[in-house]
């Protein structure tokens, strides 16, 4: 599943192409791509046609494009196109009239005031991703809803998601307090999107390896120094992955131009079962965890 770096790469690619653009037509080719939308495909098409996109915004693994209430006044968004990429969703930019993409589900035709006409394509091989029109609500802390906009609003479908560790409004002290009263393993907490969003299996394993913390260590037993070190490593791992375009193991994750990320070449633990730990040389082990896997070094990441 695309995690924070991958979704941020997609957001950054969409931003210059869709900000200020007018949606001229919508074509829903597969209703399965609207599982999070409360209306019919026809409702989705009519609701969006003629609307102006204000920005491209992200929190955690969710991406949304705020829509102006009045196409002539982009300063008053009241709804948004919420995008969740699921396991294999892609947001692609194409020239108008480009042939359909493989696994194409929805296509938006937009007219940008500077760049002219453009096609925004949502493709999804495994159909776990979705688009939806959703209301925007105020953020409880009055800070910006996510990266890409200063507006203190967030879609209702994203309101329960915690801020991510790269968000300027992320509350590190609150995160530390949450760990202190949680007996669950630290990796389970990192994957809890209400605690800190955007960290999935790949970056949880990488961050824990960098911080020398075993994934099953009870969160409440971690001293403040270890939690601070972990947070710093989470931020460093996410920033590095973002700089390298995200992690691609196959063609399912690509940016808006169809290009893969290359952070897979920088992985120290995830997916390296049996290979030597880059730090101590001991083979990386893989264990079952929540219907997926954990990868760690048994020497560097001992259970304390």
Compose a concise summary of this entry.
This protein has 6 helices and 11 strands. The protein is of the alpha+beta class and about 300 residues long.
- Give unreliable regions as ranges: none
User: What is the count of DSSP helices, taking H or I runs of 4+ residues?
Assistant: 6
Strand content: 25-35%
- What CATH architecture label of the largest domain applies? Alpha-Beta Barrel
Radius of gyration: 20 Å
Give the strand tally.
11
* Overall pLDDT metric: 93
> How many structural domains?
2
Helix/strand structural class:
alpha+beta
Task: Give the biggest beta sheet.
Answer: 5 strands, antiparallel
What strand line-up does the widest sheet have? 2-3-4-8-9
User: According to CATH, what is the topology of the largest domain?
Assistant: N-terminal domain of MutM-like DNA repair proteins
Head-to-tail CA distance between termini = 31 Å
| CATH domain class of the largest domain | Alpha Beta
Oligomer: single chain
The CATH superfamily of the largest domain is known as MutM-like, N-terminal
Question: What is the string of SSEs from the N terminus onward?
Answer: HEHEEEEEEEEHHHHEE
Helix content: 10-25%
Based on CA inertia axes, which overall geometry fits? Answer: globular
Main attributes of the structure:
alpha+beta; N-terminal domain of MutM-like DNA repair proteins; Helicase, Ruva Protein, domain 3; 2 domains; 4-stranded antiparallel beta sheet; 6 helices
Give the arrangement of secondary structure elements.
Blueprint: H1 4-18, E1 22-28, H2 41-48, E2 57-59, E3 62-70, E4 73-84, E5 89-94, E6 104-112, E7 116-124, E8 130-138, E9 153-155, H3 172-180, H4 186-190, H5 201-211, H6 224-243, E10 285-289, E11 292-296
Antiparallel strand pairs: 1-6, 2-3, 3-4, 4-8, 5-7, 6-7, 8-9, 10-11
Helix pairs in contact: 1-6, 5-6
